[in-house]
Amino acid sequence: MHLADVVPFIFLLLLLGCSARPLYPLPSRRNDKSKQPIQTFRPFNIAHRGSNGEIPEETAAAYRRAIEEGADFIETDILASKDGVLICFHDVTLDDITDIAEHKEFASRERTYEVQGVNVTGYFVVDFTLQELKSLRVKQRYPFRDQQYNGKFSIITFEEFISIALDAPRVVGIYPEMKNPVFINQRVKWSGGKRFEDKFVETLKKYGYKGSYLSKQWLKQPAFIQSFAPTSLVYVSNQTDLPKIFLIDDVTMPTQDTNQSYWEITSDSYLDFIKDYVVGIGPWKDTVIPVANNYLQTPTDLVARAHARDLQVHPYTYRNENQFLHFNFSEDPYNEYNYWINKVEVDGLFTDFTGSLHNFQEWTSPLSPDDEDASKLLKKIALMISEFSKT
Amino acid sequence: MHLADVVPFIFLLLLVGCSARPLYPLPSRRNDKSKQPIQTFRPFNIAHRGSNGEIPEETAAAYRRAIEEGADFIETDILASKDGVLICFHDVTLDDTTDIAEHKELASRKRTYEVQGVNVTGYFVVDITLQELKSLRVKQRYPFRDQQYNGKFSIITFEEFISIALDAPRVVGIYPEMKNPVFINQRVKWSDGKRFEDKFVETLEKYGYKGSYLSKQWLKQPAFIQSFAPTSLVYVSNQTDLPKIFLIDDVTMPTQDTNQSYWEITSDSYLDFIKDYVVGIGPWKDTVIPVANNYLQTPTDLVARAHARDLQVHPYTYRNENQFLHFNFSEDPYNEYDYWINKVGVDGLFTDFTGSLHNFQEWTSPLSPDDEDASKLLKKIALMISEFSKT
């Protein structure tokens, strides 16, 4: 037999191999159409950096725990490595929550850069390649939280984060932030002249994230894009119709890109402007209702003015520890949830304690019964009726 | 008219005056037979020193707050003043929770006494008369709790405490402790040769507290008598059939009267003995389930052995602050309540945060609906049926 005789067969095999479909669906939850959908009738439980009250922030484990505990959305902060890979990490420096200090091979990377007008010294993520970042181990930020997972987990990429959401047994939304875009674009360059915001949206599209708020596509893969930088939000609104949230910092912090004050960006005219680009705002909760002597003071009208413009309000951040709970709440995080959900009527909450918020919502506003529960209810009704007919 | 003529009338008036009944009941809730009764179907919410998470412990305000928040029982520690008045106060010294240091007129009263084998220096309640104690002002024990009521409230007497319970708009039980009876009997003498325990029971009987657990009389005015000193409990069981609870301290602390170790008083034979005198035990919760590295370890069998002897278990003390919450509970006090109530199966809980325990119980095991709720239920049922008939 000559090679020439075999070639057609090889060609045929290649053709078949490349066009063949699996005889059965591959084991993946991504095409599972029977997944429990996302709830949309009560405020969103947004797992701030994952369930970081229990597990070091922004790790795969923290996100999986949050999904277990009932999060509607898992939230993350996106920065970029030296080689332009989008990663999940909150601080621009690695000092506070990784073991960078123990990595002598990186000792020479310490730098001082200006970040949002302040000189910061440390080991910056933008000076490390992804491979180098992956050699680090994350630790719990707060000393009073569980330290047992320190040194066990590594930093994950934006794509790894997305996979965790897509592989969940029910529909779980993602809530990524374009973090420090001004600083990232100064320090990291991508080929093709792309910017941080371009790569951010590219990644979302690669995994099929698209669609406006509550659209059919969106409900299959819910996502909110968040940022403190209004120009970044405006920029990406040309590229995706995914809903965006405008984050608002403390009253002393101007925006990093437009240098506008808190008062300006929360004014009626600014809200009128930004509402064409975002579906809501994400303010620091102690600016929505100022605090003095650890007691709540008179609430501002920010929520009312936002709601009047059809803007959702997702304040940050709710924490269980009594040092973060104002005295009005009797050191009970559930009282705080009760107040913000039922009195202030926010539309979503960034929480470090996904499980606690889920408990509160399940106990006080449980999801409507589905078909299975309906038959249980009918049995209950029958019992009640028979009890009543006795008396 | 002579005086002699008037005397019969005066006599008549006196007769009428002394035997007359009010034409309408006096405004008091003590005879109100329509008071909402105490619940007995789920573990007791015992307001440990009142709602002292919010308000300084053992004050009238702390007790009233606890009643507002839904306590089943208000708990107190009974000590005695120099002049033998029974007061509500936890420590034998006034230093930690009062402004005694600012009272120069009492500066000379500082002493050192041996209390349960340890030398203690300070201003002892037994060296101060009631009138002098009343001139003091109480403050919040823990610096991380609300300090705004410091200096506002005074120490109250056992009788004032009882009045607060009896005047409540629903049936609220009392849970007083014969505190440090050995020390009190050493330092305070009563004129009629009576002992601390005698005066304690006398006070209860004066206000109509009597009856065994769950008896008709008991349900009208529920009460538990608690003590760390077994001989005091045995002593008073001759005087009253009110239910008693045997408190158990940490594993290192012997009983103050019989010098028996933790291991002895929790042994099978001791429980067999004490069960003829008490209806339950009140252990420190970290001895029921030991703790290491802020994680729960393997539970002991104490609860099982108590329940096997029909002894209730009321552990102390549940607190919201994360420093008191073991990591298993994700810094969520409600997870702790869930575990102890549903997994360990305790019968009552001493809590510093009455409102939080009440929330948890109301949301996860609400009281059965009464007649008013039944008609609401029927309306709900009608709605559900009509919805179902549509589909």
Could you characterize what this model shows?
- 2 copies of one chain form a homodimer.
- Chain A contains 15 helices and 14 strands.
- The longest helix of chain A has 20 residues, at 371-390.
- With 391 residues, chain A is an alpha/beta fold.
- In chain A, α2 packs parallel to α4 (158-166).
- In chain A, strands 1, 2, 3, 6, 7 and 14 form a 6-stranded mixed β-sheet that branches.
- The A-B interface holds A 53-54, 144-146, 148, 293-294, 320-323, 327, 330-335, 353, 355-356, 359, 363-364, 374, 377-378, 381, 384-385, 388 and B 51, 53-54, 144-146, 148, 293-294, 320-323, 327, 330-335, 353, 355-356, 359, 363-364, 374, 377-378, 381, 384-385, 388.
Notable characteristics:
alpha/beta; 35% helix; six-stranded mixed sheet
Summarize the structure.
Chain A: Residues 43-361 form the GP-PDE domain. The structure is a homodimer of 391-residue chains. The first copy, chain A, has 391 residues and is of the alpha/beta class.
Low-confidence stretches of chain A: none
What is the quaternary state of this protein? homodimer
- Relative strand content of chain A: 5-15%
Radius of gyration of chain A: 24 Å
Cα shape of chain A: globular
Separation, N- and C-terminal Cα atoms of chain A: 95 Å
Mean pLDDT over all positions of chain A: 92
Quickly count the helices of chain A.
15
What is the largest interface, and how many residues per chain?
Answer: A-B, 32 and 33 residues
Sheet with most strands of chain A: 6 strands, mixed
> How many DSSP-defined strands of chain A?
14
By secondary-structure content and strand pairing, the structural class of chain A works out as alpha/beta
Helical residue percent of chain A? Answer: 25-40%
Order of helices and strands of chain A: HEHEEEEHEHEHHHEHEHHEHEEHEHEHH
